[in-house]
Each structure stands twice: as C-alpha cells, then as structure tokens.
Amino acid sequence: MKNDHELVAKIRAGDQRAFVELIDRYKARIYHTTLRILGNREDAEEASQDTFVRAYRGLENFREEATFSTWIYRVCVNTCLNKLESRKRFQAQDIDQTPIEELPFTESPEADFAEEDLQTRVFSAMEKLPAKYRTVLVLYHIQHLAYQEIAEIMQMPMGSIKTHLFRARALLRERVLREFSHEEFVA
Amino acid sequence: MNCKIFHIQLDKLEAPQLDRLESPRALPPEMRAHLNLCEACRGHFHLYQQTLAILENDAAPNLPADFNAKILARLEPALAPVHAAAFNWKRVFVYAGYAFALGLALWFGFKNFDWRAAQQLLHSPAAQQIQQWLAAIGATETLQAFQRFVANVLSLIPISGSFIEKMFGTEALPRAFNLTLMLLLTFTVAKASVFLESWVRQISRRP
User: Which DSSP symbol is given to A140?
Assistant: First the structure.
C-alpha cells in the first residue's frame, strides 16, 4: 500500500486514480469530523466534498514537511469553520460568553440514563458549544488526535489547545447536566 | 476539596488520567476522597464518564454511496484539462499529421489500384458468400442493407468513373479515387484518434 506522500506525488503527476485512493483513505474520518462539527448530514456531506475539492485544487500548496493527514484535517476544519461563520451560528451561542464559574451546579441526575438518550443529549449539547471548542473536542476525543497534531491543524500553540479542551469539556459537562436538571425541574 | 474545585480539577484532567476515567482510581487521591463524601459529585462524575465514553466510542457514520462520484464530478474540469481541450485545432492538427503519414503510405499502396476491379470485387465469390451467410442466419435487414450497399456502389462507380474520365482523362480516375480515399482516411483517423484519447482518459479516471 502506498503512503500518503507517494499518492500525492502521483496526483501531482496527473494520476487521478491516486486521488480516488486518497479520498477512500480519508473520507470516513473527514465526514465524521464534519458531521460532528456541523451537526447535520447535509452540511457535513457538502463540507466533506468541499474539503476534498479544495485539497485537490490546493495540492500545490501542500508542503511536505507536514503530514498529509494534518494538512487535510486543516482544510477540513477551515471549511467547517467558514461554513459556520457564513451561517452566523456563532451569534446563537450565548453560552460562549458565560464564565464557567457562573454556571449553576445541579443536583445529581439519575444514575443510569438510557444510553441512546444520553448520546442524543451529548451531541445536542455539543452542537451548542462554540465552534472552536467543538472542533477541539471532535479532534481530540472523537478523532483521537494528539495535542501536537491538533495544534498544527488549528495553527495554535499546544498550550492554547489544552486550554480550549479544558473549557470545552467544562462547557459540555455543564450543558449535559443542565439538560437533565431542566427536565427534573419540569417534572 | 469542595464541589467547585472538584469540578475544575475534573475538567483539567489530561491524558493518561483522562483516558482511564472509566475507573475513579484514575483520579488523584484528593478527588477520590471528595467523591466518597459527596453524592452529587458522584452523580456528576458518572455522567461525565458516560459523556466522554460516548465521544470516544462514537462510530464513523455511513457515507453516501455516491460520495466519490460527487467529488469527481465537481472536479471534472480540473481533473480533465486535456479532455476539455481535446477538440482544439492544435490537437486535431497533430493527429492529422500522423494520419497524413498513414494516408501517404496508403497512397502508395493504392497507387496501382484499379477501380474497375472494385466492381469485380463486389461480384466476387467472397461477396456472394457474405450474402449467403447473412441469409442463413436470418439477418434479413442486414442482408438487405448489404445488397443496397453493393447496388449503390456498383451504380456509382461507372457514373463517377466515366465523368472523371471524360473530364480529366483516363489516368485521372485512379488518382482522384486515391486522393479522395486518402483525404477521407486522414480526416477519419484524426477524428478517431482524438475521440480515442478522450475515451481512454475518461476510462482511466473512473474509480
């Protein structure tokens, strides 16, 4: 099996089959990432396709000191962030401005939630997080990338990535707790 | 340690503690001690464990079947610059050059071609045999088409032949025939080459 750099060299030489091979290698990861950042299949599919189209067109800008994986994730994340920005979703995320310390702690939720129900709530809560926090959560916890790789993808210092992750997890935890506590209060 | 500090510490956890969060034993002793005392935090911790487990184990969704095709369709102009430019004159002339060389070879091959022999060829045993085969396999439409073709060629050759002979002399006819043939071949081969090249590129691009 050819490595990414060999495939890239072949694509640059005009081998279109190599590009298809590269799509097959990355499409599941890219689609998964876009789906979790954007929150719906339609947008995710479009953003994934945009990612590969932009990657192909920008292949000449790919410098081989980075791994192809990092580079295509960067294209993917930028595509998603542009998409979110264009839809002005940031403005809807009022929680972004709320300091973590001010979020209320809630009573303990029921010990065991139905897994599917919890899953729905977790992803629903994640969708309401600010895009930058959601992105680091997806890259770290879902795509299982290392801090260093995430830092290269997002072009930020590693310390900032750790801070983002800390805030992202805190907000997610609070959002999930808040959903349950709200139901408890209603009940 | 109070609840607020417990939660801050919980959020600050990093790998490898975070990766082993399914067990409270992964927590630092102070946090474990708080968990033993605080029921609310135990519930929060349990929910936090489940939340992270959901993220960590989130399976990749199924992709649409036409995912690759849609990307390639969007890249069609970029992927096939040669295909887009396949019918420009420059390329046609290049192939015409090759075809001309081929035609020239054929020109010499056909130089001594006797057009009258064509009539004999269409009445030859081989032509008769073809008609018999077509009749035998019941290809009536093909047989009729073949017979019409033979009839047309037989009628055209003497007419055009006598016209050219009258106009340009007896030597002109085989030359005119050969020249026409060569031009036709040149054009056909050039066009076919361009189509063939586009087709090969298209086939090789398919996943």
Answer: I
Identify all chain B residues contacting A113, using CB atoms and an 8 Å cutoff. Answer: 47, 50
On whether any CB of chain B is under 8 Å from the CB of A25, the answer is no
Q: pLDDT tens digit string along A123-163?
A: 888 888 999 999 999 999 999 999 999 999 999 999 999 89
Annotated domain spans of chain B: 3-56, 67-205
User: Which candidate in A36, A38, A49 is best for mutational testing of the B interface (most B CBs within 10 A)?
Assistant: A49
Q: Which of A35, A118, A123 sits opposite B50 (nearest CB)?
A: A118
Range(s) of chain A covered by CATH 1.10.10.10: 91-186
Residue position matching structure tokens 């599919």: A45
DSSP character string of A47-88: HHHHHHHHHHHTGGG--TTS-HHHHHHHHHHHHHHHHHHHTT
In total, the C-beta contacts within 8 angstroms joining chain A to chain B are 107
CA–CA distance from A53 to each of A144, B71, B76 (Å)?
A: 25, 7, 10
**In terms of CATH architecture, what is A4-86?**
Orthogonal Bundle (1.10)
Could you tell me which of A69, A87, A83 has the C-alpha nearest to residue A30?
A: A69
CB atoms within 10 A of CB A126: 25
Chain A residues in contact with B58 by the CB 8 A cut-off are 32, 36, 142
Q: Which token pair is B120?
A: 């004999």
Tell whether domain A91-186 is in CATH 2.40.50.150: no
If you measure CA to CA, which chain B residue comes closest to A30? B60
Q: 0.80 exceeded by the pTM?
A: no
Contacts of B48 in chain A (CB under 8 A): 173
CB contact set of B10 (below 8 Å; sequence gap of 6+): A173, B31, B45, B48
- pLDDT tens for B56-115 read 888 888 888 888 888 988 887 656 443 333 455 666 677 777 777 676 666 665 555 555
In which residue ranges of chain A is CATH 1.10.1740.10 found? 4-86
Task: Look at residue A100 and tell me whether its pLDDT is greater than 50.
Answer: no
State which residues of chain B have pLDDT below 50. Answer: 80-86, 206-207
Q: Which residues of B touch A101 (CB under 8 A)?
A: 4
